Amino acid sequence: MTEDRARKVYAIDRGTVIDHIPSPLALKVVEILGVKQEGILTIGINFKSAKLGSKDIVKVENLKLTESVTDRLALVAPTATINIIEQGRVVEKRPIHIPREFHGLLRCPNPKCITNVEEVTTVFHLEGEPPHPAVRCHYCERLYKNPGELVE
Ligand SMILES: [Zn+2]
C-alpha cells in the first residue's frame, strides 16, 4: 500500500495520527498511550515505508493527544511522528521528544525495589540511545535493556 493510499483509506476529520511506528508495534503503542475509546481507533499494520521498510499507523479519532502523553512513546517508537488533525487537515506535526528521565511511567521489575514495597513514584534514567535504549532504576540502580516491556 502506498503512503498516499494509507493516508486516504483511513482519513479522519479530527484527532491524532501516530505515523512511522516501526512494525509491529502498533498495539504496544496503543497500550502505552492508554487511549480510552473516544471514537474510532484505527490500527494499520505493515504499510510500506521508504524510511522504515514497513511501518504501522495508529489513528485516534476525536482525541488530541498531548505532548506529555505522546512522549511516552520515546522508549518503543522514537521514530514515530505525531499529526494533530482538525477539520481533515494536519494542524500540528511533532516528533517524539526523548526525555532523559521517566517519572511514573515504568514499573521496576525488581520485587525488592523500594518502588514495589512502598508508594514511591518510579524514576528511571535513560542510558543508551533509541532504538536500543536501556533504563536504570533511580532507586535500586538496576539496568534494564528492554524497557518497552516494562510499561504499566
Ligand atoms: Zn528499582
Protein architecture, described:
The protein is an alpha+beta fold. The chain is 15% helix and 35% strand. It binds zinc ion. Zinc ion binds next to loops.
> What would the average pLDDT be, to the nearest integer?
85
Proportion in β-strands:
25-35%
Query: Order of strands in the sheet with the most strands?
Result: 2-3-1-4-5
> Based on DSSP secondary structure assignment, what is the total number of beta strands?
9
- Element-level helix/strand string: HEHEEHEEEHEEE
Rg measurement, Å: 17 Å
> CATH topology of the largest domain, anyone?
Alpha-Beta Plaits
Whole-number count of domains: 2
State the share of residues found in helices, binned by percent. Answer: 10-25%
Assign the structural class, choosing from mainly alpha, mainly beta, alpha/beta, alpha+beta, or little secondary structure.
alpha+beta
What low-confidence regions span 5 or more consecutive residues with pLDDT below 50? Answer: none
Specify the overall morphology.
Answer: elongated
Distance between the termini: 33 Å
Q: What composes the largest sheet?
A: 5 strands, antiparallel
CATH superfamily of the largest domain: Aspartate carbamoyltransferase regulatory subunit, N-terminal domain
